[in-house]
Write a structure and sequence with these properties.
This protein has ten helices and twelve strands. The structure holds iron/sulfur cluster.
């Protein structure tokens, strides 16, 4: 009897990344001149290569693109300064910033305007965090409660989080701040996409004989997803591409689960599913 093959709910790229991919592809079809993304659109070499075949290439700085070309801002978002530089360089800009990230931009700008000292809980240097800080000149980034403990804090503090932050980190930072300021306003800007993907993967992994996790080996979130699955299913394999799948993994297996990291588009998941089906039949 052939094995049952199940793809986990929420497997692969989140809404914001799929939306950005779609926007870039549409732009590549419609634009007259060259199309660039500011940095690689997604940390997935196969996708970046496929996009380059469609005429889309990444640039590091807006000034690296020729005047008249189109520059697409990634799902992570950018600072207003970058947007200005793109306009000054004579580029046509397309904003693929995830709407959830946009909400954080609006939130920090509003907090600053209302006189709050802005704290962003997240990873220093991460492009999303840099983009957020660009929208409030008084914003400071903190990575943990321990870091907050050593900070001088004002009377009124407004807190937001990087969208992919683990909620336990936000909770511990809030706990550290309580009692240190007179007013603490917390806007929970964490996006549930990552947590939902992990929970669905763990649930599926606990019910199958073999679990396949699809995504770049250099993708931190895919590796983490593979660890989450391995904790439930010892026979968990992390592959980048369908042709890495080995028939011996599926011998005598009754149930196979598939999930994928945030930088894996739906097309790659389909290819892996088709290959697993072929190997199991
Ligand atoms: S905010 Fe959520 S949906 Fe948007 S890009 Fe980030 S993880 Fe994806």
């Amino acid at each position: 009897m052939a094995a049952t093959i199940t793809v986990a709910d929420k497997a692969g790229a989140c809404f914001g990344v799929e939306r950005a991919l779609e926007l870039v592809r549409r732009t590549a079809c419609e634009a007259k001149g060259p199309v660039h993304t500011l940095g690689p659109l997604i940390h997935n070499p196969q996708v970046v290569e496929a996009l380059s075949c469609e005429g889309v290439s990444p640039v590091t700085e807006p000034e690296d693109a020729q005047a008249g070309s189109t520059l697409v801002m990634r799902a992570h978002g950018v600072t207003p300064q970058i947007e200005r530089r793109a306009q000054e360089a004579g580029l046509i800009t397309v904003d693929a910033t995830c709407p959830y990230v946009k909400k954080v931009h609006v939130a920090v700008a509003r907090l600053q305007k209302k006189g709050y000292e802005v704290l962003v809980v997240g990873e220093k240097g991460h492009p999303e965090v840099e983009g957020i800080c660009g929208h409030a000149s008084n914003a400071r980034v903190v990575g943990s409660a321990a870091e907050v403990a050593s900070l001088g804090i004002g009377r009124r503090v407004g807190l937001v989080a990087q969208t992919t932050l683990e909620r336990s980190v936000l909770r511990s930072v809030v706990g550290e701040l309580v009692g240190r300021c007179e007013e603490l306003l917390v806007i929970d800007t964490i996006c549930s996409a990552t947590r939902e993907r992990q929970e669905a993967a763990a649930d599926l992994a606990s019910r199958v004989d073999v679990m396949v996790v699809v995504g770049g080996r250099s993708s931190a979130n895919t590796r983490h997803l593979a660890d989450v699955c391995r904790a439930q299913c010892g026979r968990t394999y992390h592959v980048e591409l369908a042709d890495e799948l080995d028939g011996s993994w599926f011998e005598g297996v009754k149930a196979v689960g598939i999930t994928a990291g945030a930088s894996t588009p739906a097309t790659q998941i389909k290819e892996v599913r088709a290959r697993v089906e072929a190997l199991c039949s």
